[in-house]
């Protein structure tokens, strides 16, 4: 077992659904740690006193588990080993490798005393299509690569040390990778990480997207990926992407751009954030923003000449953290200002977040604080920056972003 962070929030999420009459689906980017999560959860079950024989774990990336077998062969194999009159926990990892896997999952779900957990990389099969495929009720637990906090734990950095240079560590985090295996490769030098990320990118783009959706113009697709990666945090629309590429001499119809964007978000490479009109209190249908699942992939997409400024990179990391913490997220817009994130928390409350690298001058202070002060409601408003010295005013809480990411903010 890798000596990794325990991914506590995801394990406790799985525990909260334990023995409930639901299929548990763990989704997320390839290599974001789904299999490891199931293994960690299996360890927890054993510690809780579940007998070894009550747990069956199948990794369908291993050919011996599925080659030459139909779904029903696997179903009866599993059924033979079930412990009668005890609860059984069945883990099916990378289940999409089995043709008609949904019949296997539904069959197990209908079987008495069986609790089913599945993972799959190919997101299409595991998000938009899930409801149609699985007739059983399911809950989807979407996992992200390491947070900044988990990254530091994985690197065995003692965060209780008051004199840590968080800025340097943060640059490591965004320039290398947040993918669990990639962090393990650090000792071999950056080239190892780069090769690893290239391989993941190739698999996602080649296998999960271009083959599956029969995209013939790979160059156009690659250019769109590069364009979005270079524009994280900027408002984009299929139309303006199509027009920008046209100026570069490439003709890609906006409907094609839209389709490509859907494939990329369904494979968990990018996350799309809709705009919210603060005045009219409604979601708008244009000019969405996109954020990247792992900043290390930026080096692969946009090449070494990545130009994304550190403010947008910080915004991307804050977005992923808000997502990890269970928020629904929009970007806020009104006639004369923009707010980076409008969040609906797990408890249904509203919170506003503005993110900027640092309060360099009075102009920045006015712009960033002003955007939040213009919202006239009493919901919490936060300004996150890398400044060591923070200045809250008129109801806006200015917080150091590294403390916020590590969740070491004292509640007021």
TrEMBL record:
Residues 206-355 form the DUF4143 domain. This is ATP-binding protein. It holds the Pfam family DUF4143. It comes from Pedobacter frigidisoli. It comes from the Bacteria. InterPro entries: AAA_14, DUF4143, P-loop_NTPase. One of its GO terms (molecular function) is ATP binding. Residues 23-152 form the AAA domain. Keywords: ATP-binding, Nucleotide-binding.
């Amino acid at each position: 077992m890798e000596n990794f962070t325990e991914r506590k929030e995801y394990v406790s999420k799985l525990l909260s659904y334990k023995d409930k009459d639901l299929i548990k689906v763990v989704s997320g980017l390839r290599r974001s740690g789904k299999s490891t999560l199931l293994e960690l959860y299996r360890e927890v079950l054993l510690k809780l006193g579940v007998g070894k024989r009550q747990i069956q774990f199948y990794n369908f990336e291993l050919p011996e588990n599925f080659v030459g077998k139909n779904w029903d062969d696997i179903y009866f194999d599993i059924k033979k080993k079930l412990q009668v009159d005890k609860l059984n926990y069945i883990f099916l990892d990378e289940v999409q490798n089995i043709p008609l896997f949904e019949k296997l999952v539904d069959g197990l779900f209908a079987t008495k005393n069986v609790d089913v957990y599945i993972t799959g990389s190919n997101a299409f099969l595991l998000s938009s299509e899930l409801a149609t495929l699985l007739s059983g009720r399911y809950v989807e637990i979407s996992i992200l690569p390491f947070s900044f906090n988990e990254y530091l734990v994985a690197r065995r950095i003692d965060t209780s040390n008051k004199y840590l240079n968080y800025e340097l560590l943060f640059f490591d985090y965004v320039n290398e990778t947040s993918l669990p295996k990639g962090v393990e490769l650090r000792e071999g030098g950056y080239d190892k990480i780069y090769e690893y990320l290239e391989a993941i990118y190739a698999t996602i783009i080649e296998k999960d997207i271009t083959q599956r959706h029969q995209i013939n113009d790979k160059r156009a697709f690659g250019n769109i990926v590069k364009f979005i990666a270079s524009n994280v945090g900027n408002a984009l629309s299929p139309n303006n992407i199509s027009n920008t590429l046209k100026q570069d001499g490439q003709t890609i119809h906006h409907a094609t751009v839209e389709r490509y964007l859907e494939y990329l978000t369904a494979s968990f490479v990018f996350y799309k954030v809709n705009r919210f009109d603060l005045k009219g209190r409604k979601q708008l249908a244009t000019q969405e923003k996109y954020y990247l699942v792992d900043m290390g992939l930026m080096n692969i997409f946009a090449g070494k000449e990545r130009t994304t400024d550190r403010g947008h990179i910080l915004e991307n990391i804050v977005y992923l953290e808000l997502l990890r913490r269970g928020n629904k997220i929009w970007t806020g817009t009104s006639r004369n200002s923009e707010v980076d994130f409008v969040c609906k928390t797990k408890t249904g409350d509203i919170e506003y977040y503005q993110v900027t690298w640092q309060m360099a001058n009075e102009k920045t202070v006015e712009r960033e604080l002003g955007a939040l002060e213009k919202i006239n409601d009493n919901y919490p408003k936060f300004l996150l920056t890398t400044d060591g010295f923070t200045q809250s005013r008129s109801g806006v809480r200015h917080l150091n972003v590294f403390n916020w990411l590590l969740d070491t903010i004292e509640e007021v």
